[in-house]
Task: inverse folding
């Protein structure tokens, strides 16, 4: 049995690992010659770490994951602590620590684990077709690939998705711009073992520790789409948007390298009614494109892969296995997309009175409420 996997990102590589565990041959096709991740880092919460371990890649998380032992919210203007608490109760409850990691390092490690020489790069899908016996993909370079079924892990701009849904979809602008990148850890900004977030005005500034003495940072600002901003204006833009913010935030802005900092207009897509059509299945962002506000985008792709593998371990008929995968994932991924959207609106001031009330609640937060929310999301995954 042979699977064609479209996309060699986190979702595609996870899917290949899951199918390989079931003795299924995988041919992986990636559109670009060299993968350049969108976003500097990724929050792999405990459910994602469990998935990576299940897929045989837990050692990658051990190597790349930062020591994130505490969580803190700070007032954006004064820099004073609103709440700070240990994440150990969460780790004890779910059995695995969260691992914020460099996205580039994670993807590179997954490619190396599989074997880069076994991946077909510079293969952009032009069209796909399926019959009762199998699937065929045509690429823009004129080449053709055939297999028994296809996993479309080709991202939020998926080419294959229309073949599954029967129509194209529009991405929805979430209302804010995100800048992200990596800097060396500086305790003048935040403690080295803490996820620290500064909040005010519906904006966020956050740093997370990752491996090799680095902070992953991001800035969120509610803004209209299409502003003429790029790397040449980046520092000036951030100084303007955070002009009156705390010394810690000013220090972070000064340490940013504009050439390695990403500026992204954040989007999501309305949840779909299906993930599978016959012998073609959507996985990862192709099937459920979400905002990053609950840190579950990458984790959801890893979960997809685990469920895909479990489905083939239970069902030998391809279409039955893929339908089982769809049935197991539809409600979960819909919940994650909508939960992230709700969180996005709260944190970015869509209704400012609600955002201000949230700020006020943080001043009396002991950590129990936040940890319970994180735990609820994590344990709903396929591995508990």
Result:
């Amino acid at each position: 049995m042979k699977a064609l996997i479209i996309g060699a990102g986190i979702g595609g590589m996870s899917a290949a690992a899951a199918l390989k565990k079931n003795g299924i041959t995988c041919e992986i096709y990636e559109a670009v010659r060299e993968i350049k991740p969108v976003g500097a880092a990724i929050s792999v919460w405990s459910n994602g770490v469990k998935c990576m371990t299940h897929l045989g890649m837990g050692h990658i998380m051990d190597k790349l994951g930062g020591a994130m032992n505490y969580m803190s919210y700070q007032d954006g203007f004064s820099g004073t602590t609103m709440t700070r608490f240990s994440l150990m109760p969460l780790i004890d409850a779910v059995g695995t620590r969260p691992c914020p990691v460099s996205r580039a390092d994670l993807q590179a490690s997954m490619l190396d684990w599989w074997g880069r020489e076994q991946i077909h790069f510079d293969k952009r899908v032009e069209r796909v077709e399926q019959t009762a016996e199998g699937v065929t993909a045509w690429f823009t370079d004129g080449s053709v690939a055939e297999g028994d079924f296809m996993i479309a892990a080709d991202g939020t701009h998926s080419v294959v998705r229309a073949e599954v849904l029967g129509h194209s979809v529009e991405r929805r602008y979430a209302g804010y711009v995100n800048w992200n990148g990596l800097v060396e850890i500086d305790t003048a900004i935040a403690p080295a073992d803490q996820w620290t977030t500064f909040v005010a005005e519906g904006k966020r500034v956050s740093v997370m520790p990752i491996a090799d003495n680095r902070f992953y940072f991001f800035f969120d600002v509610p803004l209209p789409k299409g502003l003429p901003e790029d790397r040449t204006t980046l520092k000036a833009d951030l100084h303007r948007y955070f002009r009156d913010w705390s010394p810690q935030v000013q220090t972070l802005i000064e340490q940013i390298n504009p050439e390695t900092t990403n500026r992204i207009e954040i989007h999501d897509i309305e949840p779909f009614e299906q993930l599978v059509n016959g012998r073609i299945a959507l996985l990862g962002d192709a099937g459920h494109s979400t905002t990053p506000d609950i840190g579950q985008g990458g984790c959801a792709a890893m979960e997809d892969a685990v469920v895909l593998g479990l489905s083939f371990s239970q069902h030998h008929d391809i279409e039955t296995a893929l339908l089982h995968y769809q049935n197991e994932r539809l409600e979960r991924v819909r919940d994650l997309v909508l939960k992230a959207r709700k969180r996005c609106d709260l944190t970015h001031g869509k209704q400012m009175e609600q955002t201000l009330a949230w700020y006020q609640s943080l001043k009396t937060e002991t950590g129990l409420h936040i940890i319970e929310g994180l735990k609820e999301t994590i344990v709903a995954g396929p591995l508990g």
Remarks:
- The radius of gyration is 21 Å.
- The longest strand covers residues 172-184.
- The chain has a mean pLDDT of 97.
